[in-house]
From TrEMBL:
It comes from the Bacteria. It is found in: Cell membrane. It comes from Actinorhabdospora filicis. This is MFS transporter. Residues 1-190, 199-426 form the Major facilitator superfamily (MFS) profile domain.
Length: 426
């Protein structure tokens, strides 16, 4: 932890990313509330949220852009473009021009995906390979903290001052974040140019090809994606847990969520230690199986047990997600970081979205305890699949490969001095 916080670039990176996330989380929910209020339609509010999520289809092109340019300048410009993109929300009438709101939310989603992919790739440049898991853990803790506070902040600010106040807040975070990124001093490698005659579609889909070509990535992301096919069941079932299982009002779901969030905050600062002792693959395995077991434990009719299980869920899910992201970063070459991250994001997000929709349907047909039993079984299956990557060979050219086989330096001749070439400025 001390080594991480001593990293000047990482400190600016963490604050910049956190600020950007604050604005995004606040605006995403507030726009949906605003659309619902002015149109009187929950379905149209859902469309606003769907438009944001639909940006996942731009994932391959997003990854390609991230890999073709330097990541730090891309982060700076993406945040500035975000300001211009959301500014029309100050003037648009959601009732008469809903199409404009939906278009803005789609573009806003694309900007967020560029930022997330570029940030993940940039982290591999500013943090040593052996500290990546710890850095991802800290970021996860801060994200969970914001996930508890920020949506309430956005909803409250909208109720108090209207959508304009939330938009201005997000524009401010989009402005401050690049100022912090400008303070970073990063020597990024020169982006690899496209091969002669290379098709855009081939280049954009290279992330998927790389994922399928290497066993450790295929096992870890395959296991996480399979588990995500049932993670969404909790979105539909948690209200049944509170009302049917515990006899509490539906608002008790908020208590369960806060307890889970507390677990996620705690584990984030310890993940670096677990990564060194267990390795990322074991972290993913334990995280997936542990989350499934914790969710299944919530079917008990005892409030203390349900809250304890919620806390364990908060501990285990970040272990899986941070472990998986770190595997992507460590076992991918620098010139493919953006595309591999985007490919994994498409697979995982797609599975999670599908499971949420399926869970909403099944909860009307099947008892939630049966759904949670299935969730446990599929989560354990995902954990076992992830474990298949434990002894997989390290992909050549990846960051982990460079760690095992560092570039050989030319031998120094006696009586002479050698000078390393100065790194290219960012």
């Amino acid at each position: 932890m001390r080594a991480l916080l001593a990293n000047r670039n990482l400190r600016f990176y963490i604050v910049g990313q956190t600020l950007s996330g604050v604005g995004s989380s606040a605006l995403w929910l507030a726009v949906a509330i605003w659309v619902n209020a002015v149109t009187g339609s929950a379905a149209k509010a859902g469309l606003a949220m769907f438009a944001f999520g639909l940006s996942v289809i731009a994932g391959p092109l997003v990854g390609l852009v991230v890999d073709r340019v330097k990541r730090l300048p891309l982060l700076i410009w993406s945040n500035l473009v975000g300001i211009v993109l959301i500014a029309p929300l100050l003037l648009v009438d959601a009732k008469d021009a809903l199409w404009a709101v939906l278009a803005i939310m789609f573009g806003y989603g694309v900007i967020n995906r560029i930022v997330n992919s570029a940030q993940s790739a940039l982290l591999t440049t500013i943090v040593p390979d052996d500290l990546l898991a710890g850095a991802n853990g800290i970021l996860r803790s801060l994200q969970e903290s914001m996930r508890i506070i920020v949506p309430l902040l956005g909803a409250g600010l909208y109720t108090w001052m209207g959508i304009e106040a939330v938009v201005i807040l997000d524009m401010a975070t989009f402005l401050v974040a690049p100022l912090l990124f400008l303070l970073m001093k990063v020597n990024e490698p020169k982006p690899v140019p496209p091969e002669k005659g290379e098709k855009v579609t081939t280049a954009a889909l290279a992330g998927f090809k790389y994922l399928f070509a290497h066993r450790i990535l295929l096992a870890v992301m395959g296991g996480a994606t399979i588990a995500a096919l049932v993670f969404g069941f909790t979105e539909a079932g948690m209200f049944a847990v509170a009302t049917e299982g515990l006899g509490q009002p539906s608002a008790f779901v908020g208590v369960m969520g806060m307890v889970q969030g507390a677990g996620s905050i705690v584990i984030g600062f310890l993940i670096g230690m677990f990564a060194k002792r267990l390795g990322e693959v074991w972290m993913v395995t334990i995280g997936l199986a542990g989350f499934g077991a914790a969710i299944f434990a919530t079917i008990t009719p005892l409030i203390p047990v349900v809250l304890a299980a919620s806390f364990v869920a908060g501990l285990t899910l970040p272990m899986a997600s941070v472990g998986a992201v770190t595997v992507l970063q460590r076992y991918t070459p620098s010139n493919l970081q953006g595309r591999v991250y985007s490919a994994a994001d498409i697979a995982y997000t797609g599975a999670l979205t599908a499971s949420t929709g399926l869970g909403s349907l099944l909860i009307q047909l099947v008892h939630y305890k049966a759904m949670y039993a299935v969730a446990l079984g599929v989560s354990v299956l995902g954990a076992l699949i992830a474990l298949l990557g434990r002894n997989a060979p390290i992909p050549p050219g990846s960051l982990a490969d460079h760690e095992i086989h560092p570039a050989e330096k030319p031998a120094e001749k006696e009586g002479t001095e050698t000078m390393e070439a100065a790194p290219e400025p960012a």
